[in-house]
Amino acid sequence: MAQQNLPNGMPPQMVNSRPPFNTNMEKPPLQFNGIHSSHSSRDSSPSTRPGQQVPPSQLPPMRSTIPPSQLPPSRSPTNLINQKMGQLNVSNSNSRFNTSTPNQTLQNPSGLVSAFSPINVPKTDNSAGNQVFRQQLQQPPPPQQPQGNHSPYNSQGQNRTLINHGVPPYNHQIPQNQVLPNSQQTPHVNYNPPFQPQTYQRPLVNNHNQAPPHFQTMSQPKPVQNNNPVAQGGFNYNAAPNMNMPPPPQTQFKTNLHSNRYPQSQPQQPQPNMNPPQFYQQPQQQQHSVTQHGFNKMWGQDHVDLLQTPNILPREKVTPPKVYLGNEVLDSANCSPEVFRCTMTKIPESNSLLQKSRLPLGILIHPFKDLTHLPVIQCNVIVRCRACRTYINPFVFFVDSKRWKCNLCYRVNELPEEFQFDPVSKTYGDPSRRPEIKSSTIEYIAPAEYMLRPPQPAVYLFLFDISRLAVESGYLQSACAVLLEELKSLPGDARTQVGIVAYDSALHFFALGEGLSQPHEMTVLEIDDVFLPCPDNLLVNLKDRADLLTDLLTQLPTRFNNTYDNSSALGPALQAAHKMMAATGGRVTVFQASLPNVGPGALTAREDPSQRASTEVTHLNPANDFYKRLALECSGQQIAVDLFVVNSQYMDMATISGISRFSGGCINHFPLFKASRVLQNERFERCFRRYLTRKIGFEAVMRIRCTRGLSIHTFHGNFFVRSTDLLSLPNVSPDAGFGMQVSIDESLSDVQSVCFQAALLYTSSKGERRIRVHTLCLPICATLTDVIHSADQQCIVGLLAKMAVDRSMQSSLSDAREAFINVAIDILSSYKLSLNMGNGSSSLNAPQCLQLLPLYISALLKSTAFRTGTSTRLDDRVKAMIDMKTKPLSQLIQIIYPNLYPVHNLEEQPIILNSEEEPIPQPPHMQLTARCLDSKGAFLMDTGEHMIMLVCPGVSTVFLNEALGVRDYVSITDEMYELPVLDNLHNQRLHQFINYLNDEKPFVATLHVIRDNSPIRIEFFERLIEDRLENALSYHEFMQHLKTQIK
């Protein structure tokens, strides 16, 4: 077995070592359980880190509690569900959408499906909290204290008392040597000490990552001026609003909800004030405040009534929420949400607060995404923390010009002399000007200590199924034609190697040795004990043997035209590939068209076509572990296996997909493929062309680190977990996404922010060892309202989809569907409790940041992966589940909820300019419902890899003539797969808009133009998922159902 390339230059025997923060060394790490997700945790001390001593007078008042009458009752028909699906932390049992340990029982004792998360809210009484409020309101207001210009609420010529419910403001520290006089100790006003310049010389970043008291070093040197860009101007008054503070005083007005197609500004109507009594406020504050609606909308804390807002989708594209760290420099330096994204833009300070919100906590990462701007650094020493091995990043704290404090473990590290040099300005002195401190995404060219062996060449092996069904499908002609065109475009250098093997009931090897005038075919009939017919010339240098490879790809499509062999020896072909590539590693590309039925790994058909519409779906798990075990052997030799499935019959995707899932490969599926079908063949060729030419990383490993107090316990994607936080990726591609579930193990109340860092170590196609690092920083919040309003609805949906796939395989599809519904009920119930709304309310309120969550969940229930009652081929369902686990979030959302646009009036829509200064029309996003369609319009649906344009019968003749180039409506045929290029505004705008959509895709999507009265119109209307479908509720009916379940 070849040695692994490991980060940090660690020897192989140290790969499985525990992470640096694991204090329970006797407890072995949980083993990978074979369900393609894994559990790992960092054991930590149960004790909470001691915080700074605070006088009792400055403690915050008791929070109002929740009466038991307001708690939602059990939704079980027999009221037996009192235990949820499991906690979102590192619990090993009953986890919500979580993988189970080998000893875990899949069903709960009651035999009923449990809800999404265990939220154990203690029974409390509000009387104590109300008494505190009454006592405080009876006290006279305290005298105003002098404040400096550092006060967050200070305005020119006026000092204000900080109203903060007894919680110190963000980044505010009270000097320990200053004591508030007893006469001024009031329980409801924070003391603001006089301005002390030496206390506020640090920028906000310096306070973000202050270590807890027992982590501080013995001597705390004073920070050096200008050691960070934000320090040059002192306190940043133009920074983003501090989201850890409560909002300014509110009024008693509430947004008047409306149900227009696209929400418009509406006059506000007075509503009863549902908020608890506020502390004493100075009259001056009311003069400078705005309405509640204005501030809530500014900070994303507005809410909508889902029952009264049927057109919930915004007109523009849904953008990810912004992370506010309290400083513009840090906000701009944070990792892009297209690469690294968390389900919350603020992390709860405790696990109990997270459980009260009923939101899942996790991260989604697209580590090898194609980037237009990527800083690449080559240096002799890569600066890392000596304790936790974190890479230096924009969120560290420079103690002085030669030392820095890690933002994950708080250790103070020495700064190498080389880091003082700025490669841009060619000057020394200020480490904050380095690219590593300015960007959260950066790539290093790794030095020699990051290699255990010289980087291997790029090696590509292609396995072609040549059984009768494969030849009849016609895929071989298309695949060989594309490969022949792109052969010289394969990523690599002068050492690149290529090989080709064909298989039916036997294995056909092709020797391409020096001196041969044509490829030499060797057939091996013995498939039970595979061997290589010759040791050399099966994998040859691409540059030296280009002519022989061209001849082979030209002859191969016709070589087996008259075959009658119905057998497919996929298992033996993969075993042979493993033998061929064991010394170098590389990528194996498999084209499979039929069920493997001979040799090792042979399978039998398990699907019953009569049960495709059943609510109980079986055979989602592999029939055997042959392909998984072979994948692990390939992963150990740095071999990844990618599948192109071009089947016309059932071929047990649930079993054969294991070869790609555990080796870090990818799976592409083309059901019922026939090369004679233009649309299918066009999609196949575009996908394969993108696959051959995209970037690739070999011999990769990825490690995820996080701030102490957090732990990552479940991983989602195609990989093999080598240790608790190390993922083995023999190949990594720009189209691969990953997900991780996170738990809060310790209280985070003594820190201001937390960080996640992903480090991807890989070998480029040019033979360079590189490290790509992404760092995400998130602030801490202490209230339930802040947690709920920090939710990222699209990221939550992406994580829930991955968790639901695991639940479907471990338990049943019906359990996963019920859990989807329960998560919507839980989150909306939690938000209702946070508003203190009684049971008599007829509205179904959701925060603005989660207004699309029920819509996405409704769409998931109707998706190919999770729908029931609709005839769905088992292979199609399994492939859809694989997409849920592996697609990047942007592609996954488009699969769940496709985009719909009106295109008959693009010349009237607002425009934007692209990078080439071309005008791009911006039509509005439309709801996926037939009520939004107009009989006089044309509508484009974008599903990601495919676009459908529906032309209604009443569309104008001008649009037909100028945009589509047809004389009349009946001239649109069912085989219209492209648009003509005409010299008029309608046609130009349509092409510009479609090209604009394709620019964001891995490859150009196929297009199909259909009439409203065409028999193939079902292809469009079955994707209108907000309407009532076969055995599925409409979106409005689903909202009504949620309302009845929320008490």
Automatic annotation (TrEMBL):
Keywords annotated in UniProt: Cytoplasmic vesicle, Endoplasmic reticulum, ER-Golgi transport, Golgi apparatus, Membrane, Protein transport, Transport
Region annotated Disordered, chain positions: 1-291
One GO cellular component term: COPII vesicle coat
Gene Ontology process terms (BP): COPII-coated vesicle cargo loading; intracellular protein transport
Broad class of the protein's primary localization: membrane
Residues annotated as domain Sec23/Sec24 trunk: 455-691
Bias (Polar residues): 14-25, 76-111, 123-134, 148-162, 173-189, 197-230, 251-262
Location of this chain's protein in the cell: Cytoplasmic vesicle, COPII-coated vesicle membrane; Endoplasmic reticulum membrane; Golgi apparatus membrane
Family: Belongs to the SEC23/SEC24 family. SEC24 subfamily.
Protein name: Protein transport protein Sec24A
Protein source organism: Zophobas morio
